[in-house]
Amino acid sequence: MKNSLEIACFNLQSCLTAQKAGADRLELCLYYESGGITPSDAFILDVRKNISIPVYVIIRPRAGNFIYSPNEIEQMKRTILFCKENKIDGVVFGVLTHNVEVDVKTCAELLALARPMPVTFHRAVDYTEDVFASVETIIGLGFDKVLTSGGSSTAVGGLERLTKLQEKYGQKIKIITVGNIRSHNIKKIKATGCFEFHSSAIITQDANADENEIRKMKEEISAKVNL
């Protein structure tokens, strides 16, 4: 399988930088400090106009937990339809129940609305009690990808579980590793056997992706792993 690098972008300049530096896909978000929420319609259209590589839009109406009210779910549905109508390449979301388990009913509704766009389950999965059981549920629902750090706050902290997740489920769903991934540690994460990597490539105090950092990460994931 081909290794790929997805860059979370919080402004148009970062999108342009990521594309120039060789990123394989963008995840479009707002507010880096909040972990990313749904971008505005205008931002989505601006990026669609200026970017030729695949763009996935995060569908997260607010920061905080992933337990949403009926009104918030309606906001998510509206944005999903907007993305579909404007030929966005994919969407990213995750909804949990009050028991902090995958909300099967709501996720199924959102999935049906999103198709035929590819859909990634957000790293909300890392907040569930049993990440393995949750990934099984996500596979059963039909998600194409899952964004995870193996239940840890960082990918490096979840290396063992990421390895097991890839071994157990890697043929059924694409596992995208996430959580403070940068060029200095991506080789360790690649050793899990996972093929997809997610990073903001932000290395300064601003919210801009760094071109050299993206190039370095691309070089690392393309190199052979020496075990």
CATH topology: TIM Barrel
Whole-angstrom Rg: 16 Å
CATH superfamily: Copper homeostasis (CutC) domain
The chain-level structural class is alpha/beta
Account of the protein in words:
Strands 1-2-3-4-5-6-7-8 form an 8-stranded parallel β-barrel, surrounded by 6 helices. The chain has 227 residues and is α/β, with parallel strands linked by helices. Helix content is 38%, strand content 15%. α7 links the parallel β7 and β8. It is globular, with a radius of gyration of 16 Å. The model has no long low-confidence stretch (mean pLDDT 95). It has one domain: Copper homeostasis (CutC) domain (TIM Barrel, Alpha-Beta Barrel).
Task: Write the topology of this structure.
Layout: E1 4-9, H1 12-21, E2 25-28, H2 41-50, E3 55-58, H3 70-85, E4 90-93, H4 104-114, E5 119-121, H5 131-141, E6 145-148, H6 159-169, E7 174-177, H7 186-190, E8 196-199, H8 211-222
Parallel strand pairs: 1-2, 1-8, 2-3, 3-4, 4-5, 5-6, 6-7, 7-8
